[in-house]
Amino acid sequence: MNINYTFLFFVALVGAGTAMANDLIDAIAIGDFALAKKALKKSGGSKRATEFVDYISTKPGVENVVWKLSKVQRDELLKFMLPRVAADKREVAQKAVAAEEERKNALKKNAERVEIEREKQKAEAAIDAELEPLIEAIGKNDIEGVKQLLATGIRLNVTGAKWPPPLLWAMHFGRLEIVELLLDGGADPNFIGHASSIIANAACLNRDLSPEILQLLLDKGMRRDLFLEPRVLECATRNGHSNILKFIRELDSSVS
Fold it and tell me: Which are the contacts of 65, defined by CB distance < 8 A and separation ≥ 6?
């Protein structure tokens, strides 16, 4: 096929139909490439096609080739062009539908994440409100206050955004009697909060644990392997918690 015909096929492909394709062919035939670009814009032609019109406008004699096209040749040109126009429009439409679906899915996932985070914050706020009286009683070493709150069935194996599990708070302040009250009242020494065990969290705080509290935790069911977690040893070493380090070494002589 003559190269100039190939140019014409390419340009005609962006047409909206037979009439629009003829407008494009006629515009090129008389050498009016500004009119050709106007027809492209009217039909929603692509930027690539518009640039191609600019390109063929530099080819000498292209309008003469078009001018000599017979009606049969034009019909053949349109017959070649129209199915490709339809295919191109289908592809564009399919891509638009896929892009819109992707946008909707992204919005839905984002809304779900926001809702999950909102529910999490709401739940943590409720936990903080519930734990606050017990946390305050532990801080004041208010034994009777702690007993009264335990009698209400307050949750012990939970952690909020602000407050840790009450057992950790009592361990941190060295409240041996309250630690025992909490353990007897249902506090789980093996509770994992925010992906970390109570003993690991305690080791990472700035106060060492007393030997009596460490032994009590073990006696009340804390798993030995939790004491031997690498994070416990790392935090205890970094913070200089000699009691925790000594207790770990007594549990496992291989720990240096």
Answer: 2, 4, 5
pLDDT of residue 252: 84
For tokens 């004699």, the residue is 61
Q: In this structure, which amino acid lies at residue 122?
A: K
What are the sequence ranges of the domains in the chain? 3-99, 127-251
Structure tokens at 222: 């804390």
The CA-CA-CA angle for residues 206, 207, 208, to 5°, reads: 125
Are residues 156 and 179 in contact, defined by beta-carbon separation less than 8 angstroms? no
Fold classified for 127-251: 1.25.40
Contact, 207 vs 172, CB < 8 A?
A: yes
Distance CA 177, CA 156 (A): 16
* Contact present, 66 and 28 (Cβ < 8 Å): yes
Residue whose C-alpha is closest to residue 177's, from 158, 208, 150, 204: 150
Which residue in this structure is represented by tokens 């602000």? 162
Crossing angle of the two packed helices 176-184 and 211-219, in degrees rounded to 10: 10
The rounded Cα 60 to chain-centroid distance in angstroms is 56
- For 187-242, what is each residue's pLDDT tens digit? 999 999 878 899 999 999 989 999 999 999 999 999 999 999 999 999 999 999 99
